[in-house]
Amino acid sequence: MVERRFAEELEAASDVIDGINRINEEEGVRWLYSFLSADRRKTYCLYEAPSPDAIRHAAARAGLPADVIVEVTDRLLPDGATAAI
């Protein structure tokens, strides 16, 4: 999970997203989805990646911040059970 802080409001055009996805693929990283804060200045992004470093490399190449990276392995479900991501 990656937390990103943006200095200005985030605008994600389709050509920018395509470029990010190409870089991610080259680094062995897959972007699953993101949550966007109400002020559009922070995102919380879930990725599949071989390592946090692969995410850092992809973010740097794409010119994106990667302020905090937290490695997660399971989801906690509302019934208390855990499931693999």
- Please state the structural category: alpha+beta
**Helical region count?**
2
Give the strand tally. Answer: 6
Indicate the CATH class.
Alpha Beta
Unreliable stretches covering 5 or more consecutive residues: none
Task: Provide the CATH topology.
Answer: Alpha-Beta Plaits
Q: Identify the strand order in the major beta sheet.
A: 2-3-1-4
The topology string of helices and strands comes to EHEEHEEE
Query: In angstroms, what separates the terminal alpha carbons?
Result: 11 Å
Return the CATH architecture. Answer: 2-Layer Sandwich
Helical content (DSSP H or I, runs of 4+): 25-40%
Q: What is the averaged pLDDT score?
A: 91
Key features of this structure:
4-stranded antiparallel sheet; globular; Alpha-Beta Plaits; two-stranded antiparallel sheet; 85 residues; alpha+beta
